[in-house]
L-tryptophan decarboxylase PsiD-like domain-containing protein
Amino acid sequence: MSLTTLMPQRNSVRRWLDKKIAKLDANPTSPDDWHPVIQEFLTLIEGDPILSMDCDDMFKQIPDKSRFDWSPEEVPQVRDYKHMLSLFDHILNCSPEWEDNSMVCYPMQAILDWPLHTTAGQAVFSNPLVNAQFKKVFNVWAEYLSSCDSTYVLTKDDNGWLGPSAIGEPSADFETTFVCDPTDKHYGFKSWDDFFTRKFRPGARPIAEPDNDAVITNSCESIVYRISQNVQANDRFWLKNQPYSLEHMFNRDPLTPLFVGGTVYQAYLTSKSYHRWHSPVSGVVTKVVHIPGSYFRIYPTEIPDDRPDDLGQTVCSHASTVLIFMEGDHPGVGLMCVMAVGMIEVSTCEVTVQKGARIRKGDELGSFHFGGSTYCLVFRPETELVFSIKTGDKALLNTKIAQAV
């Protein structure tokens, strides 16, 4: 995909940010007006002279043009760290928005678009105290996104998440596919998160060959990103355009050596995707691991992405990850792992199964809340697979993606 294709989406984000800044500038706020969690952020910055200096510098430095696919303007939209914090304070009472026939699903990423790509910004967003403070901010934002106030973006007009540009036409396809109430103003969704984690109607995604344990199905409504074989413990395996190895992916879990030399199937979700995960095989859950991540940290070796939906995701490490290890009933499958990666800002991984649970293929395993990005199926080297899909394919939930030999 060319840069000219990507620019309309980025321009939409910049227009959206211009509107937010104009609104804030017309009714400026002082730190005394901010939410306590944003006031705490200011105290953190100004209480550390090095952090304060870096926060000043990241709005003065020119971003490294080699790190991303667009050329920065001479002046950043967000002027300084207090301006940044005032925008954060505003966002705490805003839902991710859809406008100009485009998604603006990662507002804080948009606010940080300039400073993220500076040397000073790298220092700021790699600071563990800053990462911990972002977590506090996102916990507050998550409360709002779970409230009825967050439904104001769930409208049927052109700039609403239920409008034709967001859900497609005819709207009847959405209504018959997802559990919702078309007679209600917000289709029956009680909050932004309720909409984001909406469920399929029974039968909307039939399970491929449910009684054939050799058949492996897609765990998420997603697009195939890559199928990697002979993945090594410390090799350069790219996960969401960032260098990962099995040891990084599994956070050096004791089970990691069992998967060295194996296969990783990776697929990504878009903002409009169904955000629940389902089991690709029948078997028993043997282990569940929660891995906390970081926010807004750029990797020096990151490579450009070519998907508009991922412009806000490729520059950041994962916020949270869940590993669900399962022992497949089919002997050719054996031990495998479902890895769900929450990316960007407030994203949260919720697991709905426990160790020891017997799972049938297609059963729900958990969901992304507020955000999400990608998932992987990881198989041991003993598991020989014949894949029926390829990179770039759109794979519906519960469709066949491979078969164990």
Q: What stands out?
A: The two ends are 35 Å apart (CA to CA).
